[in-house]
Amino acid sequence: MAGGRFSALSLPVDASASTEFKAFRARTPLFTVSAGRVLVTLTLPERLGAGDVEFARSLAEQAAAYAVEVERLFRSGHRPSSGRRSTKGVAA
Fold first, then answer.
1. Are residues 11 and 40 in contact, defined by beta-carbon separation less than 8 angstroms?
2. pTM over the 0.85 mark
3. Handedness of CA 1, 70, 80, 40 (dihedral sign)
4. Rg over CA atoms, the chain
């Protein structure tokens, strides 16, 4: 993360949570995550740069890794504790 102040959001999800991608012809796309009474929409500037492409690729890679881990936990019957720990960059 870049230096300076930042905001953090923890969004507990369950089976009723959803995601949605919307593409448009005349503007940048939207990606939305909805959980409970919270709706988070990722937006981009109208003029895209290489950093925007890098962010989108990273988002897709991290979401894919998240899906693999959730499926692994589900198939193993494991119930993870509520403790939080970061596994960013840790290979399974």
1. yes
2. no
3. positive
4. 16
pLDDT in tens, 38-79: 999 999 998 999 999 999 999 999 999 999 999 999 999 987
Residues in the chain, overall count: 92
Q: What are phi and psi of 33, to 5 degrees?
A: -120, 125
**How many angstroms separate the most distant Cα atoms in the chain?**
45
Q: pLDDT tens digits for 4-17? A: 888 998 999 999 99
DSSP secondary structure letters along 10-51:
-----TT-EEEEE--SSS--EEEEEETTEEEEE---SS--HH
